[in-house]
Design goal:
single chain; 297 residues; alpha/beta; six-stranded mixed beta sheet; 33% helix; flat
Length: 297
């Protein structure tokens, strides 16, 4: 009975639709079945996509490649070009950041302070505690014993005590400062990479003075900083001896472990051994997480 009533109602709906649309028109007759809809409709259930081990995951977009910079490797002591070497631009071609360099230099200076200055308070000085003069009747100011800070030889009021002047700086910022200093030298043409320093070739300070003057690296050109992979030995002695050797007549020589950011920016140019440069870049690249090519022997 219920199905029959639904069919009758459906037929009545179609009849009313035909009367309203005037099915005598051929175009209306063609569109009539499309304009009508049966009561019973079917819909598809939503399908769930289950994850499996074989499901394809879209590949992650790779970062753009980092361009390289080309450097010239020279020989020592003739400084003749030997070959080219490439380094990533985020090692030797960073923009100048004076704020980062300033923070690194202040950080190094603060941690270099020993902080051993110390004075004695009146209780730490050996002496009698007898009062120097009476409290009243002398016309002079009140005064206690001879250990008073107002007397010579007495204690020091609010004097310095041993303390730690060291400050903190994030490792990644400090490493960025190292590479920024090297990049600044490289872009100005003041960074010369040497294949290897032969310490046995250095015969004395006169020989080293001729080498520095001939290659325009001496005192007349702003002095130079020579950086080696190991302790310089003869090179260090030749750079720090001779007439006017206080502080280095034509510069100074250091090993890579005895170096800081301030030393890289102090003198006119930097002459660095390739192994030392690779070691510095490898040590100060914590924010990059990438490998540095090793020097060729």
């Amino acid at each position: 009975m219920v199905a029959t009533s639904f069919k009758q109602s459906g037929c009545g709906f179609k009849r009313m639709l035909a009367d309203s649309l005037n099915l005598r028109d051929p175009l209306t007759r063609c569109l009539a079945p499309r304009l009508s809809r049966s009561i019973e409709t079917e819909t598809s259930l939503p399908t769930s996509h289950a994850y499996s081990a074989f499901t394809t995951i879209p590949a992650r977009r790779q970062p753009p490649p980092i361009p390289d910079v080309i450097t010239t490797v020279y020989s020592f002591p003739t400084f003749e070009p030997l070959r080219f070497a490439t380094y990533p631009s985020n090692h030797l071609d960073l923009p100048l950041r004076r704020d980062i360099l300033q923070r690194a230099i202040i950080f190094e200076a603060d941690n270099a302070r020993r902080g051993t200055a110390s004075t004695k308070w009146r209780s730490q000085i050996h002496g009698s505690g007898r009062k120097v003069r009476p409290q009243k009747g002398t016309g002079s100011a009140r005064l206690g014993d001879r250990k008073s800070p107002m007397l010579r030889g007495g204690g020091v009021a609010f004097g310095p005590k041993p303390r730690d002047f060291g400050t903190k700086l994030p490792r990644k910022i400090y490493d960025l400062a190292w590479r920024t200093a090297l990049s600044y030298r490289y872009r100005k043409g003041e960074l010369m990479i040497v294949q290897k320093f032969n310490d046995g070739d250095v015969t004395g300070w006169r020989w080293m003075e001729k080498v520095m003057k001939w290659n325009h690296l001496g005192k007349a050109d702003g002095k130079s900083l020579i950086i080696t992979r190991k302790s310089p030995g003869n090179l260090l002695a030749a750079m720090n001896t001779g007439p006017g050797a206080s502080g280095g007549r034509h510069g100074e020589a250091r090993a890579d472990f005895d170096l800081d950011v301030k030393a890289l920016l102090k003198l006119g140019s930097v002459v660095i051994e390739k192994r030392a440069l690779d070691s510095i870049l490898k040590e100060h690249s914590s924010d990059l997480n990438m490998t540095v090519p090793s020097a060729m022997d």
